[in-house]
Fold:
Amino acid sequence: MFKKILIANRGEIAIRIARACRELGIIPIGVYSEIDRTSAHLNFMDSAYHIGDSPPQASYLNIGRIVEIAKKAGVDAIHPGYGFLAENTHFARACADSRIMFIGPSAESLALVGDKVASRNTVKKANVPIIPGMEGAGKEISSFKKMAAQVGYPVIVKASMGGGGKGMRIVRCEKELEDSISAGQREAQSAFGDATVYLEKYIEKPHHIEFQVMRDTHGNVIHLFERECSIQRRHQKIIEETPSPILDQTMRMQMGAAAMKVITAADYVNAGTVEFLVDGNKKFYFLEVNARIQVEHPITEAVTGVDLVMQQIRIAAGDPIGIRQEQLAQHGHAIEARIYAEDPENKFMPSPGMILDLREPQGPGVRIDSGVYKGWDVPPHYDPILSKLITWAADRQQCVARMRASLREYIILGIKTNIGFMDRIMATEVFKKGDYHTHFIDENIHELMPAYDHMHAALIAAAISASRGTRMNIVTDPGSKQGTTPWQELGAWEICR
Amino acid sequence: MHGRSAGDGVRDLSMNYTFIHNGKEYSVELKRNGDNFTAQIGEVKFNVTNVDSEQNIMVFSLKDIRFAVYHARTGNLHYVNIAGENYVYEQIVGVSYKSTEGGGQKGNSVSSPMPGLVVKIPVAVGDPVEEGVVLAIVEAMKMQNELRAPRAGTVKKIYFKEGQQIDALKPIVELE
Structure:
């Protein structure tokens, strides 16, 4: 087993990985950008190294610097987390060249499945259904136009190295195509360091269902069932649950078998996710392989009892999986809500800033993977994810109730978050029934806006607070170098007196 | 500062507080009476009883309904959470708030609502632009935001270059 692992990430996932390291007796080593000097994840590391300026290109995407630090720190392995360099072939290769184990698939399998175009072709050969579209990355605008006309509009432009909806654009007519391609390329370049995009047929109102798979160096392969990820905004999942309310056992087994075929065909080793789209007729199509630990992995952990991050580390160290398919079952129901610093009332605009107060829910069946703390300034440079709230219960109805109660308990003040929005989604009849597709949010955005039922009480609270000039509630901005003056601390009542 | 009881000499003081929420203005007239308050919002009067607050939690009763409110403030911004709903109020201090009507200044420039990186400025000084045309693209938190012309006009001034880091609410492109 490894002795030291460098965690090439930040926020909640860096903390999640550090916890797995601790439990395995491995020393976690952290890295941080300039603005992340005071980030929560560093408290979980035995040592931490500065890797560059705040923009991701200068720090968390800086392959040369990270590998250099890994060598200096004397680590045996690097865990990339998700996002940043998690699916970057150059990074996996740079690790291999420096005799550091990359915790993830080999550079070759990464190149294959990380490249959406190449993976489509491999999967097609393994007789798993795929969505019609380009068989090669598009270079000329004419090739995009030709394929779009062939499969028919609407089409979707995707980043070849992409994931999480970044660099993705739906195109409804030829007029929009060129702009969408260049916008997708820019976003892809910034998010993944690779501007390559391709095009495929866009399936209207699909369900997004993915299967967790795992394969070891001894050729053992298992799947850990599905995650229903159809609640999305801007093509990015925000709520996931397992089991999927729309799958029956037959379809579950078919899709699980297909998922295992996919990673075996790609000679993929380690934990991965095979994503499928399921259309209105419950026909499923291979979408892509996510060659990393996923944001939503905790719900699978909750229902299967398998620690996925620990398994990733063990597989990378050469251990066999040690779990047989027939030993696995889905116990109860789990839901994850991704808590983002964003404003659902304003097109989900990111909302960086200082967290003035933070109170996390607790209780049976509640798990929080968080990367923030009270008094921390959420920086504008990275993905706005703050934490993940996961609830588990014996059945779906109880799990939804537990999630809603937990969201109610979750207080974050000082920045805008999607906590209330999450609760309003789960209050809808469609969500309660469990038959929702990926356009659910777009189609119901007006009904999902807050009612502001307590406006008067809230105004009164603000007025009372204002009347007191409450010293204890003011967190001064450390950047401003100005503290509160005695006058500010006194407040209006005292001045009147 | 909580827990001051009646008899400390603070009586019958009336203060008026003005807040902006989602562009709408609200006035609260607050009168203190010992540990209790009366509040008037528009035509509606409230008796606020059993007021107690500690750290960021304030508890009070309105018409026998007990509210536990989480609140925090920074500068003039008040953050309030009540029964799962979040409110952000901007308190107007000093001069009374002037409505945007007839202000004229708004709509002459675009700025980013948050700090970020200027990715692209597809216009140049002197360019005539239609309403809704993209004047700048700013990236923050991995998302690219297109800042569009609020009206038709001519580009008068460009304050930043592509690749520059910008602060929130600073004009990027100004129209004539």
